[in-house]
Amino acid sequence: MVEFHPVRVHRSEENLPKTGQLAWKIAEVATDPVEVTADVADMVINRIIDNASVAIASLNRAPVVAARAQALGHPVSAHGSGASVFGVTEPVSAEWAAWANGVAVRELDYHDTFLAADYSHPGDNIPPILASAQHTGASGRDLLRAIATGYEIQVDLVKAICLHEHKIDHVAHLGPSAAAGIGTLLGLEADVIFHAVGQALHTTTATRQSRKGEISTWKAHAPAFAGKMAVESVDRAMRGQTSPTPIYEGEDGVIAWLLDGPTAAYEVPLPTRGEAKRAILDTYTKEHSAEYQAQAWIDLARRLRGAHPEVADPDNVAAVVIHTSHHTHYVIGSGANDPQKYEPTASRETLDHSIPYIFTVALQDGRWHHEDSYAPERAARPDTVALWHKVTTVEDPEWTRRYHSLDIAEKAFGGRVEITLTDGTVITDEIAVADAHPLGARPFARADYVAKLRMLAEGVVEDTELDRFLAAVEQLPDLPAGSLGQLNVVARPGHLDAVAMPQGLL
Q1: Is residue 246 reached through a cis peptide bond, with omega within 30 degrees of 0 on the bond before it?
Q2: Could you report the per-residue pLDDT of 5-19, keeping only the tens digit for each?
Q3: Residues 6+ apart with CB under 8 A from 395
Q4: Same domain for 250 and 336?
Q5: pLDDT, tens only, 373-411
Q6: Is the pTM of this model over 0.85?
Q7: Cβ(48)–Cβ(81) below 8 Å
Q8: Residue 228 within any structural domain of the chain
């Protein structure tokens, strides 16, 4: 059963009690000792595998190398045994493991997603929670419960509170959710979690310029920073340090000045006491390394390429118009008014957020690859540029309505495409959800997660190391205390030596 918690701005003289604040309600969910159901446990395992696969594939990419170098400069801190960093065996301080692994997981934009009033990658909760679990010697059961909390809180916040409308980066929901998950992991009191949530929100609220125009490498660092801040916020709260209060509802708080303002009112859905945390089951992963709202369009482009091969040639095409949701049109479509989305020399991060580019390449190639599809020479191909510049997006109110629907059965992230050929023929087709979506043509199952891991780890990790990792993670509910280091994956000898670690200040 879900209870909707009302949230509005309160003047200071109203003296909103702590127990009526959203941060306290989040803490109450985190302290609920309800067990994890079997289907949720299976999905947590899937997402740990998914995170490992995309992190492994990015180990030698510049942002990940830099983050790993920073982490390796911070040895294990007091009160624990430290945490693992993907690719290496040397443990580091937990907050820096959260940082390095958070960057590795997010770098390719290839892990799970949840979209509603706002958008999110709930798998970003796993690096800080897992790092804290490894450092404290937690068990597999402890980790399961903690990750279920992290997903629950982030999904519930994303369902109710829109950030992007106010140009606030979506990781502002991640800091509180990761802090709550760590609170569950450690069995902390509600008051401690309350202050950790408040500090995490306060320190991770930033503008979304990181996802606008020429998108930089900070896009991968932003969620890692939120995870690192969550670990540090819990540490401070455990030491008795308090947070700005009320952090959400205060007259100088986040809602009043950064979101919908003094008259704002939200209804945040939270599970009641004793209700299992099942929000992870509403989330979905990616088959393709691209922004989630591009997933269905890649699948539709592949289908069109097979049925109408002539559409791959720009000489045959007069115009391609994608009718889609408000968010897709204005964030990754031509409605963003970002000329960089049509630039062959744009960064990978920018092309990843350009539906005109992604649809064009998938239409021409009939496939999508996490490296080849973004290669500079691929983006610069003259026939690709010619077709790419004929692709535009428009908002369709019905697809916007379905995008925001809270009914999972009708929620959609696709739309309708109209391709007008030079001879006047119009080809139309539509798609609601990606093939890999739980309601799609080929929903992702355990075998698909494992296949994705093996594909992305080829040449990076030895098969025996992958087998060891998979055997461990699939026994997660039964892993004893102190054994969660088994969930790290080490690169094959010499692989990381191919890229030199950059020198910084520290």
Answers
A1: yes
A2: 999 999 999 999 999
A3: 323, 324, 325, 326, 329, 330, 335
A4: no
A5: 999 999 999 999 999 999 999 999 999 999 988 788 899
A6: yes
A7: no
A8: yes
